[in-house]
Amino acid sequence: MQEPSICTYQSNDDVLEQWENGEQIDLLFVQEGPLNGITGYEVSHVLLQQNYNIPVVLLTNGNSVDLQQYQGDPLRFLQIPFNEQAVHELLRSCWIQIMDSAKDILFLRGRGYVLRIPFRSIRYIEHNNRHTAIHVTYQSEAYTLGCTLMVIACKLPVECFVQCHRSYIVNKSYVSSFQGTTITLLSGDPIPVGRTYRLNTERELSLS
User: Fold this and answer.
1) How many CB atoms lie within 10 A of CB 112?
2) What one-character-per-residue DSSP string does 87-135 give?
3) What's the rounded Cα separation, in Å, for the pair 174 and 154?
4) Full-prediction pTM beyond 0.70?
5) Which SS3 state, helix, strand or coil, does residue 165 take?
6) pLDDT at 31 over 50
7) pLDDT 10s digits, 110-164
8) Whole-angstrom distance, CA of residue 123 vs CA of residue 161
9) Could you tell me how far CA 197 lies from the centroid of its own chain?
10) If I label 185, which of 3, 24, 123, 202 is the partner at 20 to 30 A Cα–Cα?
């Protein structure tokens, strides 16, 4: 098992900057109030909109009455000063969430990289010139890997993805329309549909 690493940030803005630059966050402890910029609560909402599975813990000085405003949000709170039992229970809860969410993550390891991408964040995957690009929702640039489309395809849940072309796989959730030889995604991206994949694509999209 890979050794866990701990990263510290000077401000809440740094957290967002690192996330936007592709930093993988499995568990985040963040100060509830402002820290050299935006509040931890605002940071948590940005991250959770892009990846609902990240356990986020807000460190707070507030009491239980103050926290009522956050009811219904997928957040956890750790009261300052810390209580040993509360820390133990919180970490156990976060670990369970991390293990559960791992079932919904595409895990890829190659020379010089490790990628963990939530399936729900993948819009489409394309293969071109011996490289495979994974287009995701949380950044404009795709992850480009030196592997075949088949290597990734066998790791994807068939109920969520469909291969519509020898060089393309799309996430059914992001399909806006399918007409003739083209799929249009919600983002407006056109995806070609191969002749030999057309009937299966139409059947899969009608079932989703």
Assistant:
1) 5
2) HHHHHHHHHHHHHHHGGGEEEEEETTEEEEEEGGGEEEEEEETTEEEEE
3) 20
4) no
5) strand
6) yes
7) 777 778 888 889 999 999 988 999 999 888 899 999 889 998 999 999 999 999 9
8) 9
9) 28
10) 24
